[in-house]
């Protein structure tokens, strides 16, 4: 799903990995790192007792977490190299020389403005003064809808009570409709407001102290700031209580409530949507998807009954919080002190160049993507990846045909869906147009706001229009991949198709284990507990025979029970109903990759390499993407918010269900990596 394999990767050379993250210089080319590194292994470990330690033990010991990271893994190391490569591109484009295209100049000017820290520091809070003045002028509750619409349009990643945008219609996959989604929280998840354990209470107090300090930076005295922070926490807690849990949000039927403007008005009788929509340039909208009606009913009460002074405090906080990373150091540092140090345990803030590269990718991603692709992703690599994808899909078709728990009728519909999946590899067929986005070399905060408005207007312009099935949700340099259940497509940006994830110099075994496993992972998402509820065109529609759906749920429960026993940190176990979709995709992906690799090499003579048989190289190649170290604070955040299991269990949890692994490493019944109850769905 769009939770999309958020994986992240380090050089598999243990000796280079320890120092590479510290390098603070641009890279003219992406560095090469091999797709299987025996130096990252711990060959003293018993693979049948702890395969993760066997495949990654050397990497874990030799790769401490950099001071500006909450965790460090193979994907993040590759991302660090990629950022330095993109830094080189942007620094070159930022030079005011002849020969750059208008789009290249736009990229260079944006980056130059972002890197001008002196100018940013000199501006102080000036970039948000206009928004703060509009909030201070809120004296009449009837003016709230128009004000919210203005603030949401101009605030980067605005989280003001709720989100408004466009989305594919769950019931008609050919159309785009307006969407209203629950939101409004400052902390990462609603459970931070609701849990009663000592650690949660401490974190809420620390959050309130951070909000207080933010108000002081805005000019409030301590008493006013503390009172305002208390009201923010109270209001956000009320929103949290009305919000669905992350597990509940995994059920798409709980997020689809289509209603017309009349029903929406009855749902929120005290909040007038007409001025909100008019300010957004969306008069006369006929249909909406209201993701959480109970939330909006509660929001209506909050908007009607909360004193205006408290609403103003909340809006001041959210606007400042959203803009904090783009303001002067005093505000940026305070923002990092809580959300980086306290929440995730990160000792140091990232250097400015990293933050600027990330922001260019976020706001002008397909412009930067064109430069990245031209330098790092050729047609041969695209062709080879497409071939592997087709092999994985052929393996899935064989798998479907051979299932003994699925009826012929459901098999036919599943095969129709499989054949309809679109494969998107590397970059979009049609690049996004940025001509209408003005960028100034001397106005960083203005660039951020204008880019936010540009994207907001681009999204809203889709409403009522036919769906564009060619659009991507990730930029080409992204080290990630995803499946979109409504578009029914699998997407592999150029960034994830670089060594050590896909290594054109390496033999097929680790490549199929690693990239093949990722392709199979995304393909399996089409048939996981969420994806299986959408049909071949992306409509939310039940196409399963009842007994087949029951058989699926029974097999999925096996993974729920297995992963629910794994400990993440402290005494916190995996929320295996939250991670179920990713766990299903991990296991299905590895099984499909194995089948495809066997088919690809059926007529080849395979020899051992580096002391490993071809079969062992497949499994080690698959495991080494997951080598990682993580700070305990970050692990606790991810336990609540991340739909992926920790890396160790994304390795051991899979191989313990595979007879082929046991045969490759001569494991026996009773060994830790041989499950007594084998889980298998796809």
What does this structure look like?
With 682 residues, the chain is an alpha+beta fold. Helix content is 52%, strand content 7%. The two termini are 17 Å apart.
Characteristic terms for this protein:
27 helices; 682 residues; three-stranded mixed sheet; disordered N terminus; 7% strand; alpha+beta
In round numbers, the mean pLDDT is: 95
| Main β-sheet description | 4 strands, mixed
The percentage helix is 40-55%
Radius of gyration from the alpha-carbon trace, in angstroms: 25 Å
Strand order in the sheet with the most strands = 2-3-5-4
Global structural class: alpha+beta
Broad shape: globular
Number of helices: 27
Proportion of beta-strand residues: 5-15%
- Unreliable spans: 1-22
Distance between the termini: 17 Å
What is the tally of beta strands? Answer: 11
Question: How is the topology of this model organized?
Answer:
Layout lengths: L13 H7 L30 H12 L8 E3 H20 L8 H14 L1 H7 L2 H11 L7 H11 L7 E8 L2 E11 L8 H4 L3 H20 L4 H20 L16 E3 H7 L5 H7 L7 E4 L2 H13 L2 H16 L5 H16 L7 H12 L1 H12 L2 H24 L5 H13 L1 E5 L17 H17 L21 E3 L4 E5 L14 H18 L20 H18 L3 E3 L2 E2 L6 H21 L13 H10 L4 E3 L1 H10 L5 H9 L3 H6 L18
């Amino acid at each position: 799903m769009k939770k999309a394999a958020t994986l992240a990767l380090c050089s598999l050379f243990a000796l280079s990995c320890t120092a590479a993250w510290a390098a603070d210089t641009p890279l003219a080319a992406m560095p090469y790192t091999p797709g299987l590194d025996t130096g990252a292994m711990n060959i003293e470990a018993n693979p049948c007792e702890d395969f993760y330690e066997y495949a990654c033990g050397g990497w874990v010991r030799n790769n401490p977490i950099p001071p500006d990271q909450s965790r460090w893994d193979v994907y993040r190391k590759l991302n660090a190299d990629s950022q330095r490569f993109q830094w080189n591109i942007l620094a070159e484009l930022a030079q005011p020389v002849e020969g750059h295209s208008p789009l290249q100049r736009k990229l260079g000017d944006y980056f130059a403005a972002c890197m001008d820290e002196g100018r940013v520091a000199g501006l102080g809070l000036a970039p948000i003064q206009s928004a703060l003045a509009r909030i201070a002028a809120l004296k009449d509750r009837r003016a709230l809808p128009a004000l919210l619409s203005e603030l949401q349009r101009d605030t980067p990643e605005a989280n003001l009570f709720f989100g408004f945008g466009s989305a594919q219609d769950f019931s008609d996959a050919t159309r785009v409709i307006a969407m209203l989604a629950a939101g409004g929280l400052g902390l990462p998840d609603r459970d931070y407001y609701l849990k009663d354990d000592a650690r949660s209470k401490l974190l809420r107090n620390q959050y309130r102290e951070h909000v207080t300090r933010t108000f002081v930076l805005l000019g409030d005295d301590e008493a006013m700031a503390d009172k305002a922070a208390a009201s923010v926490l109270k209001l956000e807690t009320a929103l949290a209580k009305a919000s669905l849990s992350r597990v509940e949000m995994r059920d798409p039927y709980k997020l689809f409530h289509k209603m017309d403007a009349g029903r929406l008005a009855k749902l929120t009788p005290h909040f007038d949507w007409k001025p909100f929509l008019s300010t957004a340039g969306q008069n006369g909208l006929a249909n909406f998807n209201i993701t959480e009606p109970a939330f909006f009913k509660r929001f209506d009460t909050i908007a009607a009954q909360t004193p205006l002074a408290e609403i103003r405090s909340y809006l001041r906080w959210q606007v400042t919080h959203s803009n904090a990373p783009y303001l002067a150091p005093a505000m940026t540092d305070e923002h990092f002190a809580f959300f980086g140090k306290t929440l995730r345990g990160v000792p140091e803030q990232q250097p400015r160049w990293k933050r600027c590269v990330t922001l260019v990718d976020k706001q002008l991603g397909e412009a930067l993507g064109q430069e990245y692709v031209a330098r790092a992703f050729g047609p041969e690599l695209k062709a080879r990846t497409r071939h592997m994808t087709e092999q994985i899909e052929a393996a899935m078709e064989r798998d479907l045909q051979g299932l003994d728990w699925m009826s012929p009728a459901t098999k036919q519909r599943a095969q129709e869906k499989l054949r309809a999946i679109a494969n998107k590899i590397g970059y979009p067929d049609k690049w996004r147009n940025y001509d209408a986005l003005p960028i100034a070399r001397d106005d960083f905060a203005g660039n951020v706001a204008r880019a936010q408005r540009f994207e907001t207007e681009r999204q809203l312009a889709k409403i009522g229009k036919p769906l564009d099935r060619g659009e991507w949700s990730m930029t080409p340099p992204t080290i990630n991949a995803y499946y979109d259940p409504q578009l029914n497509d699998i997407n592999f940006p150029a960034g994830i198709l670089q060594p050590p994830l896909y290594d054109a110099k390496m033999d097929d075994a680790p490549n199929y284990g690693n990239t093949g496993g990722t392709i199979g992972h995304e393909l399996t998402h089409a048939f996981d507990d969420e994806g299986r509820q959408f049909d071949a065109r992306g409509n939310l529609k039940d196409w399963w025979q009842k007994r087949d759906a029951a058989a699926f749920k029974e097999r999925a429960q096996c993974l729920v029970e297995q992963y629910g026993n794994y400990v993440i940190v402290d005494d916190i176990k995996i929320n295996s109903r939250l991670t179920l979709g990713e766990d299903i995709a991990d296991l299905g992906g590895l099984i499909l990759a194995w089948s495809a690799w066997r088919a690809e090499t059926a007529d080849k003579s395979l020899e051992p390499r580096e002391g490993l048989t071809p079969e062992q190289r497949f499994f080690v190649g698959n495991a080494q993407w997951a080598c990682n170290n993580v700070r305990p604070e970050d692990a606790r955040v991810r336990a609540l918010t991340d739909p992926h299991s920790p890396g160790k269990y994304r390795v051991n949890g899979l191989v313990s269900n595979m007879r082929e692994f046991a045969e490759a490493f001569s494991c026996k019944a009773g060994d830790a990596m041989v499950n007594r109850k084998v889980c298998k769905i796809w």
